[in-house]
Amino acid sequence: MRQRPITIPTLLGIFVAIGGIIAGLLLVKNPTYLGISASGEEIPIDVRVSNISDNSLTVSWTTVKATSGFVKYNDLVVSDDRDQERGNIGSYFTHIVSLRGLKPSTNYKIKIGSGKSGSDCQEIMTGPSLRNPPPADVIYGQVNTQGGDPAEGALIYIQLPGVVPQVALVKTSGSWVVPLSLARTSDLTSFAPYDRQTSQVNLFVQAGPLGTTTKSLSLSDARPVAPIILGQSRAESRDVQSPIIETKSKFTESALDASVSVTSPVIKINSIKPRVEGEA
Questions:
Q1: What is the pTM for the complete model shown?
Q2: In this structure, are strands 76-79 and 107-114 parallel, antiparallel, or unpaired?
Q3: Which of 1, 26, 95, 166 is the most exposed place for a label (fewest CB within 10 A)?
Q4: SS3 state at 39
Q5: Pairing of strands 56-67, 76-79
Q6: Nearest 10 degrees: CA dihedral of 114, 85, 148, 142?
Q7: Cα separation of 117 and 40, whole Å?
């Protein structure tokens, strides 16, 4: 039987098939070639772990661009606290995710998702179960913008010496509340001892493009704290030293150091659909 000669179209088909196999191997080896683009403005910045207890912890960070955010641990994905309250996914400059229902004295590998960007896995341990919590003690206050509007969506960090940092989200009204009596010592083995009147507390407000503010005061002046105005810091203030997760990515340091210059009117930092209000 006469053998059919190989034609040009057949040869092209073979080359196309081989090329497809090679491309497929490259895609599997390096998934970033799948067409999923990530903006440097979505990289998690200033990642902090706060509110660590035996069954919960809070992860927070900021981004240069308003974007969605979540934290993945085990096989679970937990969205921003505001998304859980509202039932839909929003875009924010500040991000706060509370992980609940955790097990005591357990290491958890967590990974941040921020838009199409994210962080490497980091390992965080919860504390042991503790009995006989101290009497309830909360500190609270108000955060406003320089224009007098509530700084909704800002993050306020609370730090006492030798104590696990605490964080709270500033609400729509501009108010915030932190149950300080539930805070633990830095080694997580006991509830934090402090004097409810004389202990010094450091406050750090992170409001993304609206700026930051620091304040230091005695706990006797923290119920309530005098209204905090973004951009106004007391001379004796000190920045809050809280656990920061070092994040790595494929982006350059210039992308990590990107900043927002606010020269136009009000920017909403906490909105399902972030808006810029005012005239161009």
A1: 0.73
A2: unpaired
A3: 1
A4: coil
A5: unpaired
A6: -100
A7: 8
